[in-house]
Amino acid sequence: MKIALAHDWLNQMGGAENVLETLVAMFPGAPVYTTIYAPDLMPAGYRKWRIITGWLNRAPGIHRHHQPYLPLYPAAVQSLHPRGFDVVLSNKSGFIHGIPIEAGQTHLCYCLAPTRYVWDYGSYARREQLGGVVDVLLSPMIAALRRWDFAAAQRVHHFCAISTDIQARIKKYYRRESIIIHPPVNTERFQPVAQPTEDYYFIVSRLIPYKRIDLAVQAFSRLGKRLIITGDGRDRAALETIAGDSVTFTGRLPWDDVARLMANAKAFIFPGYEDFGITPVEAQAAGRPVIAFGAGGALDTVIEGETGVFFREQTVEALMSAVEQFERMTFDPARIRRHAETFSTAQFERKLRHWITSVV
């Protein structure tokens, strides 16, 4: 079976790229078709891959500022032609599911999310602080992209979703059925310790608005409980301004330091709404319970009362109540670790191979 991989763009690292790295390892030699590729912005190992781009990759400044080219992505995707393959497996959060296929080929889409800025433009605009004239100018374009995106989804033979939340969105926006295979998580990187050594809670995250780190900063400042926040982003200065003495910002840290802080925390705090969310699984791999906003991917990865606690409203007060509830409970680190292992890379590979062979 000859497989080609397809990916939206390769100019920044994120969860989509973590999945792609696993796919490349699973299918050695499979080419990666993508709209743009910036070798200087991606890990050096990517230069060993066979990466095939189209004309959009030559657009001025696109490697560092790809958002202004949004209207051109459908045409750029349609200029890619993976010929001579049995299966095209797209790893999609944008428009790559519209890649043309030949007669006799099977297109399988591993859907990280239906295109967010098309189907949930309001939330995207608020997150990116757009508005006013920009909204007025973009509305006709978004409507046209939505029509294209829906039509492209109808040409996919089979969909696979990363979570229950994404499965529901595939059904709502594309009117397509899908199965669920959770993304791969490197559970071996995080290991439990016999007994956490310090009295603190922990967050590792990009510090950007939709992550809602502001809720945690305010809640732990008011509770006077120690919170360590690892990561960086455009919200950091504002968050430091509202933080009390019990909240510490470390900036970015090496993985070994992150793993140590994770394993020794009382609990991991996850206040945002995510399509899946890898960090709560990593925390559970370290044997630590999670206090999470009860929506999105967290509903798939955290078992309430066994591996963590949910708060149901994205408010400071709801998070404070969840922390107080958590401190009256006990959790079994070994049980938490076993649950995390169900999201391991090995489990992902086994399930994905079974799905491919069952539908092709």
Offer a concise description of the structure.
This protein has 360 residues and is α/β, with parallel strands linked by helices. The protein has helices at residues 15-26, 73-78, 116-119, 121-127, 133-154, 164-174, 213-223, 236-242, 255-264, 278-285, 298-301, 316-326, 333-341, 345-359; strands spanning 3-7, 32-34, 51-52, 87-92, 106-111, 158-161, 178-180, 201-204, 227-230, 247-251, 268-270, 290-293, 308-311.
Explain this structure.
With 360 residues, the chain is α/β, with parallel strands linked by helices. The protein has 2 domains: 3-184 and 345-359, Rossmann fold; 187-341, Glycogen Phosphorylase B (Rossmann fold). Helices cover 38% and strands 15% of the residues. It has 14 helices and 13 strands. The chain has helices at residues 15-26, 73-78, 116-119, 121-127, 133-154, 164-174, 213-223, 236-242, 255-264, 278-285, 298-301, 316-326, 333-341, 345-359; strands spanning 3-7, 32-34, 51-52, 87-92, 106-111, 158-161, 178-180, 201-204, 227-230, 247-251, 268-270, 290-293, 308-311. The strands form 3 sheets. A 7-stranded parallel beta sheet has the order 3-2-1-4-5-6-7, with helices on both faces. A 3-stranded parallel beta sheet has the order 8-9-10, with helices on both faces. It has a 3-stranded parallel beta sheet with strand order 11-12-13. Helix 7 (213-223) crosses helix 12 (316-326) and helix 10 (278-285) packs across helix 13. The N and C termini lie close together (9 Å).
